Each structure stands twice: as structure tokens, then as C-alpha cells.
Amino acid sequence: MTVKNAFYAQSGGVTAVINASACGVLETARQHKDKIGTVYAGQNGIIGALLENLIDTSKISDADVAALRHTPSGAFGSCRYKMKSLEKNKREYERLIEVFKAHDIGYFFYNGGGDSADTCLKVSQLSDAMGFPIQAVHVPKTVDNDLPVTDNCPGFGSVAKYIAVSTREASYDVASMCATSTKIFVLEVMGRHAGWIAAAGGLAADADNDIPVVILFPEVEFNQEKFLAAVDAKVKQYGYCSIVVSEGCHYPDGKFLAEQGTRDSFGHAQLGGAAPVVANMIKDALGYKFHWAVADYLQRAARHLSSKSDVEQAYALGKAAVELALEGKNSVMPAVIRDSNKPYKWHIGSGELKDIANVEKMMPMEYISADGYGITEACRDYLQPLIEGEDYPPYENGMPKYVTLKHQLVGKKLPAFEL
Known about the structure:
- Belongs to the phosphofructokinase type A (PFKA) family. PPi-dependent PFK group II subfamily. Clade 'B2' sub-subfamily.
- By secondary structure, the chain is of the alpha/beta class.
- The protein has 13 helices and 15 strands.
- The chain has helices spanning 18-30, 46-50, 62-67, 90-102, 114-124, 126-130, 156-177, 196-200, 224-238, 274-286, 296-301, 308-326, 377-387; strands spanning 4-10, 36-42, 54-56, 105-112, 135-140, 184-189, 213-216, 241-246, 259-263, 269-271, 290-294, 332-340, 345-352, 395-396, 399-400.
- Strand 1, helix 1 (18-30) and strand 2 (36-42) form a beta-alpha-beta unit.
- It is elongated and about 70 Å long.
């Protein structure tokens, strides 16, 4: 088998465990030097390939590669950049081929969510469309947990743990103050179309923690009158209420509660601000004092609270991506296949990118309670294993000790390219 170099890059919003997948890719590639030469990492995702900004990962020590497993965020830089079709932007694909040829790259590993799967699929088609041999394997990652085929997505389990824990702790706080002060706490979480993260707030309450939680899902159209009645009933029963609202919560006409009127680089409506909208709605209608918070980057960067299962799966999927490529596979994605809930057992399988790219996995309606404001036991059975286990990073002077890589770029061999 001819030794070829590899390209690895991170894409989209980062997570607490995306670097664990990078660790899995790099450590596994280093174990197969007879087949994989140098792994070049794209500086800031696919843009690194287009601009020929390639990080030589062979210059990174084994210790620093290992430390990626417990370091949050994207160690190589990420981006939000979705390549258009070959027909609409042939020059970018020709540029990729030029860069791949110049650096003898035969393997392409792209670590990201749905839009990244689409980019990976397009790159995988270069062999047929443009006569260049490249094996493209997608490494799944997204806190939104909305990729099909895989049981869950790396990054989601840790976010779910963070939201469940934060909702419980904030609820304890509000419960202690509600007699004379705040009665409402609103936590806004990510989730444009799928309510997986919001659902995790339901784990705050269990048999030992009778906590009043109302969840606003993207899957359930927002009914203001019904919602206010539900909150008021909780306050009258418990003295307080915690609300977890997904940024994707919307009115029957499709307008988001949090819509700002702007759009991101992918053309998606830019969201942010559902929590204050909901909190003020309650204050105006019911008169209850409130506090609100937006989890935002905190939820996806909280490596100190990552679940062990999430870390293990993120690493395993990075490792499996390399193994699939070595088996000669192209246009595929390794996936988590659940075998059982109790005890929690899983294994690594795979799916084809044509069945994954541009497909969103929504939360099943049977996971949402009949009133539309909570989770069912089936949902709890699905979520619970994903937040279990602790995998703390090492600490030094009271702070988590993370690795910051010194990016050593390889020399450029091609003329400059403009995006």
C-alpha cells in the first residue's frame, strides 16, 4: 500500500470533546506510519486547505497530542464555511486538488456536523468528478445531536450534562429565595430545530429531586397562553419554576422567539435572546420576579464537566475514521450504535455520507410529554447514559490544565488563493 499523507480539519461550532476526536485521529494515524505519512491539520477548517495553511502535526509531541483528549474547543481552529456544489464553484475544488497533489494528500478527515458532512461528501466525489484519488471520511461532532445514523453525536453528552446540572443547581438557588424574591429562572440553550439540549434540562428533576421544570422545545409550537398557565401552576404549587428554552422555540407562523433579523455565514437565521423574551413575558403577565441566563459558549466549552461516555465516544470515532480509511472506505462516517440502555452498551458502526449530509435528526415526539413541556421516560432512558461518568481534566493551581498547540505551518508550494 502506497504511503499517503492525510488532511484533518475541524468545522463549525466547537465542543468540549472535539479535540478528543482529533486525538483519536492523530494517535491512530501514528500507529500506521507504513500507510499514513504526515497528518496535516487545516488551520481554521477547510479554509486551511484552500489557503494552503497546513499545520504539520508531526511536530506535535505525543504528550501534547494525548493532552488534546482533555482540552476543549478546536485546537486547530474551526470555521463556518460551506462549499458550494462542484458545478457552482469548480475553482475551489480545483484548488483543493492542487493542494492535495502538492502535499501528497490521499486521506481527508473532516470533523464537524451536518454542513461539514456535506462538505466531506463533496470532497469524496472528487475521485469520480475530477479524476483525483481521495478518501474522505467524516468524523461526527455536534452539540445539537442532529446527525442521522449515529445514536448520538460527540459533544452532545457533555452539553446535556452541563445543562442538566446547571438547571438543577439554579433551581436549588431559586427555591431558597422564592419566598421573598426571585420565583422564575430561565435558561436559554442551543438547538435551532431539534430540542435535544433543551430536553436535557428535564434530567434536573428525578425521584430524589422534585423540581418544577418547564421546557420549551423547537418541536412544539409556542402557545403563550398555555405556557403562562403552566408556569403559573408550577409557581402556585412549588413557589417557583425553572424554564429551559431552546433558542429554536418558535411561534406557529415559524418566527423564532429569539430571531434577531440577521443571518450567519450559512444563511441560517441568527438566534439569541429567547431567555429575556420569555422572562419578561412572565413578568408582564404574572408579575413574578425573574433571573435569566444564556448558556451559549459555556455549555459547549465546559470540559471540566464532560461526561465520560462522551469523551470515550469522541475518541473512538476519531480512531474509527482512520481505520475506515485504511480499509479503503470513502464517503463514510463512523457512528455510535447503541446496543442497550441498562447497562449502557454501544459499538462503532458506520453510515454513508449520502444518507447523512443535509439530513437533520429531530427529537422523536414520543420523547416529549403530552403537555409539551417535559420529557418522557423513553427520553430519560435515552439521555441518562450519555451524561454518566466523569472524566475530569488534570488541575494545576486550582484550574484545569489544557494544552495550547504551537502551530507550525508547512511551507507553501502554490500561488496565493482568494476565497
